[in-house]
Design goal:
The protein has nine helices and nine strands. It is α/β, with parallel strands linked by helices. The protein binds guanosine-5'-triphosphate.
């Protein structure tokens, strides 16, 4: 009789432990995103640090260290940068310049940022490839999707330069396009704030951050986190957009392992 009770008790305890284990695993799965391949989008302004314009070598190095940390954790990383620290096409056009010419100047600015980031990553011992949407083969490789895929599979950081290669498109759209072409699991948009707010947190103290949003929320509430073309492309290809603060060291890793502060945009 005692043996029977002991056996029942053992079996009950084992079942309880199994349920607890499953619950814990479930909790872990819920909080930790499982991104194997990501596209990191950063505005050019991120690379200028506290300067008014141009590149701040210490900031470029710091960003490269964050990317290295992500790559070392086993995540495949490709990058799209903007050029606002060097030349912004829209502002050139606003000053009377032909819009297409201004946009091409912006695309050349992106190539400068891409080469700076490549140099910083290679100084840290990471293999990289810069691929430009506008062929300039003396400087970097032309963008060829299948070749880019191969580089990523080999663990190289692929930096996509020159936007989409077309005027009238933003680097956000270039990021959504390349993230779609590379079958990325997420598009991480590194900004100067830690997510998407209902108002500008730098101007409004009552602004609150969203934990998650749908693509339609972003489009209909006009939240201005990305332009509509970029959001629509990500939505069509079901690529989550994760907005986080890239200015703080270590935030990329925290966003990837689910311990950071960010806003996720999904369907
Ligand atoms: P796999 O051998 O296929 O793994 O790729 P890989 O990039 O190592 O080989 P590849 O021979 O294509 O490139 C060798 C080096 O030349 C790399 O540093 C490339 O970035 C660079 N490279 C390749 N194509 C071009 C190009 O069109 N222009 C420039 N400037 N560099 C290139």
């Amino acid at each position: 009789m005692v043996n029977f009770i002991n056996a029942e008790l053992l079996s009950f305890t084992a079942s309880l432990m199994l349920i607890l284990h499953k619950l814990l695993m479930f909790g872990e799965d819920m909080s930790k995103p499982d991104y194997k391949r990501i596209l990191l989008k950063m505005s050019g302004e991120v690379l200028m640090g506290d300067n008014e314009f141009g590149l701040d070598p210490a900031t470029v190095k710091r960003v490269a260290e964050d990317i290295k940390e992500a790559v070392d954790s086993g995540v495949e990383v490709c990058v799209v940068v903007g050029a606002g620290n060097i030349f912004r096409g829209v502002s050139g056009a606003a000053q009377g310049m032909d819009r297409t010419t201004a946009d091409y100047m912006g695309m050349l600015g992106i190539v400068i940022n891409a080469l700076a980031l490549q140099n910083a990553l290679e100084t840290l011992g990471k293999q990289t490839r810069v691929m430009s949407a506008i062929p300039m083969s003396a400087i970097c490789e032309p963008y060829i999707r299948r070749k880019a895929m191969r580089h990523m599979e080999k663990g190289r950081v692929v930096i996509f330069a020159a936007g989409t290669g077309n005027p009238y498109f933003t680097t956000d759209t270039a990021a959504a396009l390349r993230a779609s072409e590379m079958n990325c699991d997420a598009l991480l948009k590194g900004t100067k704030v830690d997510g998407i707010y209902n108002a500008d947190p730098q101007k409004d103290d009552t602004a609150t951050r969203f934990e998650s949003l749908s693509y339609m929320d972003v489009l209909t509430k006009d939240l201005k986190v990305m332009d509509a073309t970029a959001v629509s492309l990500a939505r069509e290809n079901d690529i989550p957009i994760v907005v986080f603060n890239v200015r703080e060291k270590g935030n990329l890793t925290k966003t990837l392992d689910g311990t950071g502060t960010y806003t996720t945009v999904t369907n």
